[in-house]
Amino acid sequence: MKLNDLIFCIVIIFTLTTFNTTAIAKNTHDDIHKILNNLQSFELNQGAIIIATIEKSEINYYTSNATINPSTPFEIGSLSKLFTSLLLAIQHTETPVTLDTQLGDIFKEDSLPKDISEITLKQLSTHSSGLPRLPENLDVNSKNPYDGYTHKNLLQYLNNATLSPEKTFVYSNLGAGLLGVALEKITNENYDTLLNHHIASPLMMKNTYISRSHRNLNTMTQGYHASGKKAPHWTFDALASAGGIISTAEDLVNFLTLQLLACCKNTELEKTISYVQKTQLIKAVQLSQEKHFSSQQSIEMGLGWFIHEKDNDSVFWHNGQTLGFSAFMGFKPSTAKGVVILSNVALSTDEIGMAYLENSLDKLNKLIVNRNQKVPPKIIEQYQGNYSITPQFAVRIFANNHLLFAQATNQPAVKLQMKNATTFVKPNLDLSIEFIPNTDGEFDSLILRQMGQTLKGNKVFDD
Predict the structure, then answer these.
(1) Cα–Cα distance between 310 and 131 in angstroms, integer?
(2) Interatomic CA distance for residues 115 and 104, integer angstroms
(3) Are the beta carbons of 254 and 231 closer than 8 angstroms?
(4) What per-residue confidence (pLDDT) applies to 415?
(5) Of 11, 54, 296, 399, which one has the fewest beta carbons inside 10 Å?
(6) Is 30 a residue whose pLDDT tops 90?
(7) Is the pLDDT of residue 277 over 70?
(8) Residues of 247-270 as b/e, b for ≥16 C-beta within 10 angstroms?
(9) Does pLDDT of 24 surpass 60?
(10) Beta strands 58-63; 385-390: pairing state
């Protein structure tokens, strides 16, 4: 028996665990179990997923196997941006600092270039500052790229940075990290203290903290690449506010509960989580949920939150991924439903969160089964390789268990679905990859399309 066969036999007998199950609709309860069973069988390898749902006054936890529970710590990646943006909203509601405060007013002694100094804190929070995704002096090829990237490195880059034209939407870890540094300068406190004092402590989030190199991470959950290989933990320095938070499902449920209390009048929920009413955060949360930016790509942003609008209804959401972890948080004000999803596998969990909020879990379950249909070996052989899009950004195409994956520089891998012989897609990420043959019929380039952008990559061949 092959090792892969043995793993498959083991995972299908894992029993799903449910904590604090109440009267949630039976079909929803059953659909979540089916999804987790299929994910554990087909995609998670040695990893696991925990889903926490809030509906009316009911809070439920589901896990794909018994290796994790609501108090298990995970790297939450870019969910950290929600905390950073809430810290900004707190400053706006409680101090003279406003959303329109400019960097030049904060970094007075650093003599920033004029275009950088005119960037506002709101623009950093809504990815509309014009700053790129990452600074050019960050080692994106490192297994732990953010560790050791200091405030000095950041300021050096800003003095030579080039902004995108008209400050359109550009998702920027750099911008979110800079927002955290700006808040540190405004308050004269480090980000760890701000996080604990203003959010974690008031919300009783006892296991929420920043991943720093001096911390002992030996007790941390092991993270895994999509391929099933162990992934190293990420630790952070200056850009911690962009993705450096470690947290648990039960802690994030407290944060999500606050979001629901701010947007939805729910007496039962107030009784269930009464301590949230005692905090001074509601006004700041309500400010963060207002629409603060609309892009030409039809992307709507609160402070940190993406706002998906459909049929005169809204879903607030954000995701997060590191080298070995993925996360999702979202809520729907019209139904007072919310969901937190954490996994120690670097595969997107967005589709599960959206399916729960949109009541389409049954369709997702069918999709999970269909997308795990194996890709013919001949196609895999033609497309595998590294494709260079820019000097700092490439996409790796690889196969695992006869399935095709794409992994961008410094990002976790995503599983692709075969649309036809040359085109593969990831619908929930609005991602399409088309492989292009040259005049000799060899596939040596690809076209990547996502959220209105079209990028071409050429295969890099070893010398």
Answers:
(1) 29
(2) 9
(3) no
(4) 82
(5) 296
(6) no
(7) no
(8) bbbbbbbbbbbbbbbbbbebeebe
(9) no
(10) unpaired
Residue type, 417: Q
Give the mean pLDDT of the chain: 87
Cα 441 from Cα 460, distance rounded (Å): 17
> Positive or negative, the Cα torsion across 398, 404, 408, 412?
negative
How far is CA 105 from its chain centroid?
31
Which DSSP helix (H) or strand (E) runs through 456? Answer: strand 453-460
39-44: long-range pairs with CB below 8 Å, 24+: 39/64, 39/368, 40/11, 40/12, 40/14, 40/64, 40/65, 41/8, 41/11, 41/12, 42/368, 42/369, 42/372, 43/345, 43/347, 43/368, 43/372, 43/415, 44/11, 44/343, 44/345, 44/347
Q: Is residue 61 within a helix (H) or strand (E), and if so which, with residue range?
A: strand 58-63
Decide if pLDDT at 25 tops 50.
yes
In whole angstroms, how large is the CA radius of gyration of the chain? Answer: 22
Pairing of the two strands 58-63 and 49-55: antiparallel
Place of tokens 């406190």: 189
φ, ψ dihedrals at 459, nearest 5°: -65, 135
Q: Environment class of residue 188 by beta-carbon count within 10 Å: exposed (0-12), middle (13-18) or buried (19+)?
A: exposed
CA 339, 86, 224 angle in degrees (round to 5)?
A: 50
- In sequence order, the 6+-apart residues with CB closer than 8 A to the CB of 19 are 60, 61, 62, 63, 69, 70
Compute the distance between CA of residue 37 and CA of residue 29 in angstroms, rounded to an integer: 13
Q: 135-144 pLDDT, tens per residue? A: 999 998 888 9
What burial letters (b/e) apply to 72-96, b meaning 16+ CB within 10 Å? bbbbbbbbbbbbbbbbbbbbbbeee
Q: Which class for 15: exposed (0-12), middle (13-18), buried (19 or more C-beta within 10 A)?
A: exposed
d(CA 272, CA 237): 37
Q: Is 201 in contact with 90 (CB distance < 8 Å)?
A: no
Count of all residues that appear for the chain in the document: 463
**How many percent of the chain have pLDDT more than 70?**
89
Give yes or no for a contact between 51 and 17, defined as CB atoms under 8 angstroms apart: no
State the pLDDT at residue 107: 95
Task: State CA 255 to chain mean position distance.
Answer: 16
Non-local (6+) Cβ contacts of 234 within 8 A are 75, 144, 145, 146, 147, 211, 243, 244, 322, 323
pLDDT above 90: percentage of residues in the chain: 61
Question: How confident is the model over 306-329, as a mean pLDDT?
Answer: 94
